[in-house]
Specification:
Layout lengths: L7 E2 L7 E2 L15 E4 L2 E4 H9 L8 H23 L3 H19 L6 H24 L6 H23 L5
Antiparallel strand pairs: 1-2, 3-4
């Protein structure tokens, strides 16, 4: 079998013949390197370059988001500790409030790392109350401890969801 001069090889995998090209940069790509977008197949480099245009967060947004999320999650856990079982119903609302407060303080700038920072801060803020409850004086009850854990999980996942947006894969 002979190969003609028009045989293309993937720019990333030179031993794989392909007939597919990136619809942005026109480089030949194999199925391993192709990323399906709404406008056609693109190489991973073009997709990565396009995604960076959406990351608008500044360096000072990260500490601001961390402080706001941690403090509000801490306060929500303290309030939730007082209302016992109903903390489960408070958690999604608290998560939405934390996410919107973070959006407000960072002026709607966004980044994947900013979302993860905010979610980690929400978990840490709730975790501080859980640790304080475990090490505090007095008698230990298991139900408030479980409720605090559920609150921490729901708040963290709500913040992650609200700031991360919807992703359909």
């Amino acid at each position: 079998m002979t190969e003609d001069a028009t045989t293309l090889y993937c720019y990333n995998h030179p031993n794989i013949a392909t007939g597919l090209r990136c619809n942005n940069c026109e480089r030949p790509i194999c199925p391993k390197c192709a990323v399906l977008t709404p406008t056609g197949y693109r190489c991973k480099d073009c997709v990565r370059l396009h995604q960076k245009t959406f990351e608008t967060a500044e360096w000072y947004d990260y500490p601001l988001a961390f402080i706001v999320a941690a403090v509000l999650s801490y306060l929500g856990s303290l309030i939730g500790l007082r209302i016992s079982f109903f903390i489960i119903f408070l958690a999604p609302v608290a998560g939405m409030i934390i996410a919107e407060a973070v959006r407000l303080v960072v002026r709607r700038r966004r980044s994947r790392k900013l979302t993860l920072t905010s979610a980690a801060a929400a978990a840490i803020g709730s975790g501080i109350v859980i640790i304080a409850y475990l090490t505090g004086s007095g008698y230990f009850r298991i139900l408030p401890f479980i409720y605090l854990g559920i609150f921490a999980f729901i708040v963290t996942s709500t913040v992650l969801y609200r700031l991360g947006g919807i992703r359909i894969k």
